[in-house]
Structure formats: structure tokens, C-alpha cells
Amino acid sequence: MALAATNTLANRTAQVPGSYKPAAATTGVIAGTKLAKYNQSGTDLVITRDNTVLENLEIYGDIKVRAKNVVIRNSLLRGGSGAPANPTAVVDATGSQVVNLRIEDSTIRPDRPHYNRDGIKGHDLAARRNNISGTTDGMGIFNRPGGSVAANVTAEANYIHSLTYFDYSSAHSDGTHNDGIQVQGGQNIRIAGNTIVANAVVGSGSRPGPYGPHAGLGIMLQQNVSKLANVVVERNWVDNGTTSINIDNGKYSNITVTVRENLLGRNQYKFNAKSTYPIRIINRSASTVTGLNTNKWADTGALLSQTVPSGIQYNK
After folding, report:
1. DSSP letters for 25-64
2. What is d(CA 122, CA 285) in angstroms, rounded to the nearest whole number?
3. Residue in 232, 230, 143, 246 with CA at minimum distance from that of residue 192
4. Residue 231's pLDDT band (cuts 50, 70, 90)
């Protein structure tokens, strides 16, 4: 598949997600853009005005979106200068005020990676053609606890790679579990046409992780916050990590998702020096996965099958 044209925003938006493999040249700030420095103090940038547009900027500080119809476009997002006390993201969209956030054609690369700093986190947003690296998770998707069951998130044509591992985590006893895209609950979620390379670099002051250069999961579909519904994962390129696509019913008795026509690489971490998990389903009887048998190996185009070691495996 041909790479999308990169010289103008119009050329990029004309390309259909899934028809080309996103990479550095087709994501992030458009080459040649002159960026104005913004919020150079590096303190949190809290957006409370509806319809705010941040465009063609080099933005310092973690962005807390607390408004409707905010647009962040064609900008370099450098993240906060401090160490966040609680889990957050370079773009944090977890507030109840967030509606229809758009993050497009931006480079998300924190100057100070931290175990509490993801790339994009929250609900009611569309993330398209972004280049995300250096964060703990690339994206965290879930509906707002205590609010609507709808997450309303679209992630299309992004390039997520080179996550940062820390041997300390506020959530896990064994260090950070770096995932390309972690879905923890909600309805109306579309993950399409992204390139997700779940590899990891070691954060400052940390020892190497248990899986070496491999991060956690490429795409995690897990029902921690709420039950999933109307979730579609299609035509993504996913590789590396301990598993490329993980499907877990979590604290609910069953899970129903669509996972179709994805292209999976062969570079997962090898457990016991032999077992790899391109697609791992935690509980076969609790899982309904539409399109499961349409997923393919990226190198040959051959269909994955449900026999070990042919790509689709079950914990039980």
C-alpha cells in the first residue's frame, strides 16, 4: 500500500485510514510548518473555553481539556516539565466537560517521560494522524466513571511507538505496563488504520524491563471501567510487545468486540523461548469476536488461525 502524500493537510485527509501504513512521514507535524512556542513555563495548560483551537504551535505543559469542541492541530506537544502526582497524559480528556475533542497531525513526545504520563487519555475525542512516542501508554480510552457509558472515541491513522518503561509504577508492582492503545471500557470506540509498534525504551533512572525492548500490549481491550459495546478494531498494523491484540472480559461475564482485517507482525516477546501471542483471548467461552478469522500476518498476508502457534491463542 502506498504512503499518503505528506505535503499538505488536504493530501493527508484525503487518504482513507487502513489504505496505507502510517509512519513518521505521514503522521505528526507536517514538514515545513513554522511552529510558535506556547506556554513555555511548562505548567499545566487547562483549556476551559469551548471551541478553542490550538494550531501550528510548540506547546509546553500537559494539556487538560475541560471544554467542548477543542481542536489541537499540527502542533508539537512537549508535555509537562514536572512529575505528575497522579496518572495523566500529555493530552488529558478525562473531565466531564469534554465533548468532541480533536487531536490531529500532531507530534506527542514528552520532554520528561514519567510513569504517570500517557500520550492521550480520556473520552469523547478523535485522534487522527498523530505521531506518539516517549509516553507510558500511547492512548488510554474509557468512558468517564460515574458518567455516560459511551466513550465516543475514534483513533485513526496514528503512529504509536517507542514507549517509555519505568521500573516503578503507581498502578503495578512490576513497573509500567506500556500499551500502545489501552481500552478499559465504554461504548462507541473505533480503532482503525493505525501503526502500533509496542516497543519500549528505558526511562531515566530505571532498570531494563522484564521483556527487554518489548513493551506491554499493542492494543488492549479490557473491561476494567465498564462493559464494552460497539468497539471496532480494524485494518491496523500491530507488532512487538508481549501481545499485539489482547481481548479480556475483565470483571464482566462476557465481552463482545469486532477485531477484523488487522495485519500482525511476528516480533512479540517469546515466552519460554518459543510462545508468542499476536492475538490473545483470555477466555474463549466469554468472548465473542466478530471478524477474528480475517486477521492476517503482515509479512505473508496469510490468515491467522486458532491453532498453536498460528496466531490466535486462548488462555482458557
Report:
1. GGSSSPTTPPPEEE-TT---EEE-STT-EEESEEE-B-EE
2. 30
3. 232
4. very high
Nearest Cα to Cα of residue 132 among 122, 119, 151, 144: 119
pLDDT tens per residue, range 289-316: 999 999 999 999 999 988 766 799 999 8
The torsion angles phi and psi of 12, rounded to 5 degrees, stand at -65, -50
Looking at 16-156, which runs of residues are DSSP E strands? 36-38, 45-47, 53-55, 57-59, 63-65, 71-73, 76-77, 88-93, 101-104, 107-108, 117-122, 125-128, 131-132, 139-141, 150-156
Say whether pLDDT at 190 is over 90: yes
Instruction: Report pLDDT for 2.
Output: 46
d(C-alpha 59, C-alpha 78), whole Å: 6
Distance CA 187, CA 185 (A): 7
pTM for this prediction = 0.96
Grid cell, residue 18, equals 487502513
Q: From CA 227, how far away is CA 102, in angstroms rounded?
A: 24
Is 292 strand, coil or helix? helix
pLDDT at residue 308, as a whole number: 63
Averaged pLDDT score across all residues of the chain: 94
| Residue 83 buriedness (CB in 10 A; 0-12 / 13-18 / 19+) | exposed
Q: How far apart are the first and last CA of the chain?
A: 36
* Distance from C-alpha of 215 to C-alpha of 178, rounded to nearest angstrom: 5
Give strand pairing partners of 139: 120, 181
